[in-house]
User: What shape does this take?
Amino acid sequence: MAGLDYAHRRLVNTLGPERVARGEHERMVYSHDFASLPKIALIQWRLYPDFVVLPRTTPEVAAIVKLSDETGLPITPRGGGTGSVGAAVPNRGGVLLDLRSMNRIVSLDPSARTVTSEAGVTWRDLDAFLGSKGFALPVLPDAAPASTIGGAINGGAAGTGSFRHGTLRGSVLDLEVVLPDGSVLRTGSAVDLGGAFADLTPLFFGAEGTLGIVTQATLRVIPKPETSRAAAYSFASAAAAARFLRGIVDAGLMPFHAALLDREHFVFERALRADAPEPADTALVSLQGPKDEVADLEKSVDALAASVGGAKVPAAVALELWERRFMMYGARRLSRGLVIARTLVPVSRLEEGVGRARDLIHQLKLNGAVHATLLDTSTAYLAPYVLMDDTAPSGGTALGFVKKLGDAALELGGHPMGLGLFMVFNLLKMHGRATGAMGSVKGVFDPNRKVNGGKTTELWTKFTWPVINSIPPGMMGFGLDAAAFLRRIKPTRDTFVRAYERAKGA
Amino acid sequence: MGLLRDWAFIEDMTRIPALSELVREALIKALFTRDDRVLPPAIVGTLSKTPAVTVKVKDDAEVRKLVQVLNGEESTVSLGLSAEDFHYFRRQLGVARGKEIGIAPRPRSLLTYDWLVPEPRGVQLDFSAYGSVEFPEGSARAVAQVGAAWTDLSREALANGRAVPFVPTVPLDFAIGDALWGDAPFASYEGDFGAYVLGLRTVSGYGHRTMVGFDAVSTEGSGYDLVHAILPHAAEFFLPVAVALRLVARPAARRILTYRYADGAKLAAGLEALTRSGRAVAWAHVADAGAAAALRPTLPPDPFTLQVSLAGPESGLATREKAIDALLAGFTSKASDVPDPFDLPSEAYRKTADRVGRSLFVGEVRAPVRSLADLHGKLAGLGEQVGAKASLYASVRSTGVVSAFPAFEVQKDRPRVYELSKGVHRIAKTIPGAVFASRLAHLWEDDEAFRKRMGILTALKRDIDAAQVLQPLVSP
Assistant: This one.
């Protein structure tokens, strides 16, 4: 391997000095994603990249990838850093590509109803641009304000709008990808061909940047809906709210979006903002489309909510909840960190899933809230979050919650979401005998493990010596089980809300 | 059978670039039409080794055993065959020979035509007796064995309080498996077949039961989405035995609205308005006069018939119908009592399928919905040119795209199919945004990105099916 100074010179020659960083501060910023990670993780991974580079064009990305053959440095692509499983965090240092400088909207084709955008554009910016042209994105990921086009595609994100318009995966028609050999591949076609002509786009959706670097995407757009309304209902329990969501599927209703926010979420919000809605187990439904259809649908949803004991919340509150839908994790300010356990569970078992999440939060003596949405008629996205203080020695043990909830999702017939660096142990549990085929996919695209190696299908450490260069995924799972055990035997419950209010008073 | 096999076979035969330019298309034509006068004897020999044994599957354990025999893990003795059968089986399969022997499923119905390169001996699986459907209680989903006919799945779903959201655009008697290894054009207004597939229960090339995807939930966030990447070629990677499908609730009320148009341009404009409106529709199908005559022989056909299926709570249907009437302005008459092909009893559906299936289909043209009239006119011109009456079946998508299936009233001989496919391919190239998707179009495609993707898929196939059992690639 060439020295780091040589690699630095070559990178500077390629991109210019202003777009290559190697300072301690820049490297530190890129050493974690949205999830809080205890410092102990540095023992097994080199989370700090050696260099951070900001390419602006696809040829520049290709040049950096080719350069890695000379320098031997691994490559980690990154978007907005909104993931929470370490997929966009280096495990052996190397070159981190921050793609947010690739932020051009390339073209909008109103007649074909498609938009082509570079990977670093955020979903909110793209949606705002489309809105100005009379169009909208059918689906937006949860973290739309910060999440980039490439980031959400790589993360296999779930999103708002998928219940009405199909999953985010379905709205991605074509990708431009720089492959690990430096060549550029178009994965599909700008015309929706239903998988014809060897469409490889699905392989990149959720690939966590391990098969190549997505630099451009062509997405389906929809004409801006005639009207859009939000309705919210409070329920006596989270279970009743979950029953309501299930009722939407059983009644064949097709809202744009339907979500559940439990009481605890509003307790956290109240601690942060005095004008936050009254804490209650709440369901939020968004309706979009022609006026008559929306009015008719709202009546049906109202009747359904009433049948399971839901009380309609004032329209202004519903509208506020809808407008704050991308700001779900403000509670992070109460502690010093926050962990989201993203899972998919069958809609038929959502009630059970919500119950299991609440029980786990209680058993592990955590402060946490439950959030769930309908992804499609059979799948619900269950994503509770818990607060943690990653500066405290016991803070990292909250990660045990993610492991335990993932296990619960598997038991319920669903699966945890995201593998990245921290959750690779779930791959075998999710895919059983098909796990080998996942390894084949990585092997075909990136036999030398240049791009985001040691993640998703395998788990590398920072070491390159045999035996200690990788961790058996099961051992990582065992470690998180141990963390959950430590939480369970912890004598006291976390009291972030009280501590925050005390500090505020002081 | 298999797209990757056809493609790899032709790539192998035209490996020298200069030669490829000169002979590739001639070769495809000769292979497709089986013009043995121009094909080398070795190739004719390869193409003549059709599957010798057909096994009617009743249990997936049989499939596993067969795969294990073919990949050399088990001998035929362990299949529990009688001595007579044992020798027959061994001889037919040529077990213990050096060459790969494969296993391939047989489609129940094919819309277009067979593949170029047949299974080199080996076993063909007939799944017609493997067609039960499981409806997990309280869930909007089903697990259908691959032999389940679409009509049976649809009927059983309704009996279980659910509805199958997709229908075959061309109503032939397809089994669910035909979408995985055949060319069944299942679709709804909102999406393609893939949008409703959660996972595949399969047997791998190692003879193991292997779940690709999930039974009850979508694949998001679970790593590489293998299910949707391989769906059109699934049986070349794994042998699917059942499909986990996402259903919807059985609608409280449903209306089939039939609009008749004299002018294709007005129809196209109406459909463009409908797809821009954001209105929820279950499916919207267009049939021209020829197609309508095959679908409803007792009714006088109009130049264009559009059927729209509306579903939902009874309360809002009337308003929605009025709004759709307004969007589809330009129709000459409207009816709400014309039967649609999908709600017929099984026997009547099969009779319709027989009638429709007599036409020659060449594949699918995807085009912007506003180009529908243009496409129709050009197809009619092609029909006149070759002396075959052309007709059109089409399914409209909410995305503003139409999936059109041209049909020709002509004898189904391979040279004619080739000639018509070429014609349709030419037409699609003249319409902005239109693409002709068929097996032949795949072989003709010379786009560099497509070739690269096919190369990746082929490498993936070789790796996943390392034993070369599932529709193995064949060298000339």
Notes: Chain A has a mean pLDDT of 93. Chain A has four domains: 1-98, 105-223, 226-327, 335-431+463-494. Chain A has 18 helices and 24 strands.
